[in-house]
Design a protein that fits this description.
The protein starts with a helix and ends in a 26-residue tail after the last helix. It has helices spanning 3-23, 57-80, 109-133, 152-159, 175-196, 203-233, 235-252, 288-296, and strands at residues 98-99, 143-144. Helix 5 packs parallel to helix 7 (235-252). Strand 1 (98-99), helix 3 (109-133) and strand 2 (143-144) form a beta-alpha-beta unit. It has 322 residues and is mainly alpha-helical.
Length: 322
């Protein structure tokens, strides 16, 4: 055998090893083992004071799966009028039902096409994470995507000052309301995946999470862009998006983790704010506790509320005390 042949075989062997590693994604390392290592300080992952045991990779990705259930159900119902199939809802923990939601009658074909693409992406995320997590995947928890005066969407809109006491916010009523509903979730997804990145120790898991983060960032940028464009003709739409951004900051205890879509300047000097970044041009991160503050719609430590009326499934389930 020549040296060239040996090198070629070595390259092919490494490709096969890489492919098998992807195929067996998560399976070998998932279990009850927590992330630990000599000289490594435990991370505070719930956003509370003091260090505590860091979550396992499975814990972090199951936390993400809870969020993907929420996004997938919202988009799937809004676009197609149906939720996720029953086979995609089972797992560890208490399986819950989805409350509310209906198909949107889109009038803008661009919004309709964007919404369909995002829905398909979110459903794929659920299927991917469930398949790779295997028997340790959490079940879908109870989810509220209704539009009654006391529903999560209405309470979120009320927190942003979009509606008054006793009023309801119907995210399925028209294209604009749907976009505002989507805006509640999308930026949170980006900051959640970025914040979770340091908690993952396996590079294969980190690569997959980075891939999902990139997709969520595309979604967030798309929603922000459409809201900004429509806001040129309907200024109140941009104002509403900015108010939602402010409400998220009031929930997670920060003053700079969120930014509205309105930029700076006037006239020809106006700039948009499609991409929310820090002074170094880097996207923001949220702890798992801060993420739960937003989806639970509380600035206190809690185990349930908002879009997850019975809480999320898995080891990471408490919001931060802000």
């Amino acid at each position: 055998m020549t040296i060239d042949q040996e090198q070629l075989i070595d390259v092919l062997d490494r490709r096969v090893e890489r492919r098998n590693e992807r195929r067996d994604f998560f399976k070998a390392a998932f279990g009850a083992a927590a992330v630990a290592g000599a000289g490594v300080t435990a991370l505070s992952f719930a956003g509370t004071a003091g260090a505590q045991s860091a979550p396992s990779d499975a814990d972090v990705l199951n936390f993400a799966l809870n969020l993907e259930y929420l996004e997938a159900q919202f988009y799937q119902v809004a676009v197609f009028g149906t939720g996720l199939p029953a086979g995609q809802l089972t797992g560890t923990g208490t399986q819950g039902a989805v409350t509310g939601g209906r198909k949107v009658t889109f009038t803008d074909p661009v919004v309709a096409q964007y919404a369909k693409e995002i829905a398909q992406d979110e459903v794929a995320h659920v299927a991917f994470l469930r398949t790779q997590l295997g028997t340790v995947a959490v079940a879908q928890p109870a989810i509220d995507i209704g539009v009654t005066p006391t529903s999560a969407f209405s309470n979120a809109a009320r927190a942003a000052g979009l509606i008054g006491a006793g009023a309801a916010f119907d995210v399925y009523a028209n294209d604009e309301n749907f976009l505002l509903g989507a805006f509640i979730f999308e930026d949170v997804g980006v900051t959640a995946y970025k914040g979770a990145a340091p908690l993952l120790t396996n590079k294969t898991y980190l690569e997959a999470a980075a891939g999902i983060l990139a997709v969520e960032a595309y979604h967030a940028g798309l929603v922000r862009t459409v809201l900004y464009a429509k806001g040129l003709a309907i200024p109140s739409l941009r104002t509403s998006a900015d108010a939602i951004s402010g409400a998220r900051d009031s929930l997670d205890g920060s003053s700079d983790l969120d930014q509205g879509i309105t930029g700076t300047g006037t006239g020809t000097g106006t700039t948009s704010n499609i991409v929310p970044l820090d002074s170094d041009g880097i996207a923001f991160s949220r702890t798992t506790g801060q993420v739960l503050n937003i989806v639970y719609l509380t600035n206190s430590a809690a185990g349930m509320g908002g879009f997850f009326p019975a809480g999320v499934n898995g080891a990471i389930k408490t919001s931060a005390a802000n």
